[in-house]
Amino acid sequence: MDEVGFIPLDWAKLPERVMLEQANLAYQENNSRRTTRHFSTQSVDRKLIELAIQSGSTAPNGAHLQPWTWVAVSNAELKQRIRIAAEEEERRTYDHRMPEAWAEVLSPLGTDAVKEHLTDAPWVVVLFKQKKRLRANGEWGPTYYATESCGIAAGLFINAVHRMGLVTLTHTPSPMKFLGDLLDRPSHEEAMLVMPVGYPAPGAKVPDIHRKSLEEISIFMEE
Ligand code: IYR
């Protein structure tokens, strides 16, 4: 691979008051995000999806290989095919494959094998993780920390969707192989997440659940 060289970091110090304001704003904004299963069928401009994907792709990632492919589907027939295949797998999961301990923690969230969001939402974005990359010498080599990289990228995508006033749902049909087949992806790419994106339906609901407190999730070790 070519040498990239180094350039100065583009960075400006913020006043401490502004740092705290920004930290609060970021937290409030992130904390106001909710995952809903109820999407409106109202259309969303492709430009917004492109920008969310570009936001996702700013993620720090293993060896800067950017091991992701985002497939954004608005084609109604293709969304329908994704839904049918996802529901088939999910029905097997919910009816036979899901151990009782798993069902126990899912039941308060109201999830089931019916995935209407896959056809209601105007866009379904499928994130594929690239397990291999083509080297300059024409041979295939591995990617590194592709799962972590794509996880961070998905987080940034979700945040961008939230900031533009839309909603998304991280759907994980399992197994996901059908997505590579339906979307014609090469075998070194593995579907990781399915994210319908759109407006919430009028009257959209979310489960009445709460986030853990700072004390529950963190340990500070000082002096
Ligand atoms: N993949 C299934 C089941 C599911 C699993 C977890 I963990 C969730 O937090 C939610 C759902 C589905 O998408 O329904």
Verbal overview:
The model has no long low-confidence stretch (mean pLDDT 96). α2 crosses α6. The protein is of the alpha+beta class. Helix content is 39%, strand content 14%. A four-stranded antiparallel sheet has the order 1-2-6-5. A two-stranded antiparallel ribbon has the order 3-4. It has a single domain (35-201), classed as NADH Oxidase (3-Layer(aba) Sandwich). The protein has helices at 16-31, 46-56, 76-97, 100-106, 117-120, 146-163, 177-182, 214-217, and strands at 68-73, 123-130, 132-134, 140-142, 167-168, 189-198. It contains eight helices and six strands, in the order ααβαααβββαβαβα. It is globular. β3 (132-134) and β4 (140-142) form a beta hairpin. 3-iodo-tyrosine binds next to loops.
Order of helices and strands: HHEHHHEEEHEHEH
> What would CATH call the class?
Alpha Beta
The CATH superfamily title: NADH Oxidase
Report how far apart the termini are.
Answer: 44 Å
Largest sheet: 4 strands, antiparallel
Give the total of domains.
1
Descriptive keywords:
alpha+beta; NADH Oxidase; four-stranded antiparallel β-sheet; 8 helices; 39% helix; 14% strand; binds 3-iodo-tyrosine
Topology:
Elements: H1 16-31, H2 46-56, E1 68-73, H3 76-97, H4 100-106, H5 117-120, E2 123-130, E3 132-134, E4 140-142, H6 146-163, E5 167-168, H7 177-182, E6 189-198, H8 214-217
Antiparallel strand pairs: 1-2, 2-6, 3-4, 5-6
3-iodo-tyrosine binds next to loops.
Summarize the structure.
This protein has 223 residues and is an alpha+beta fold.
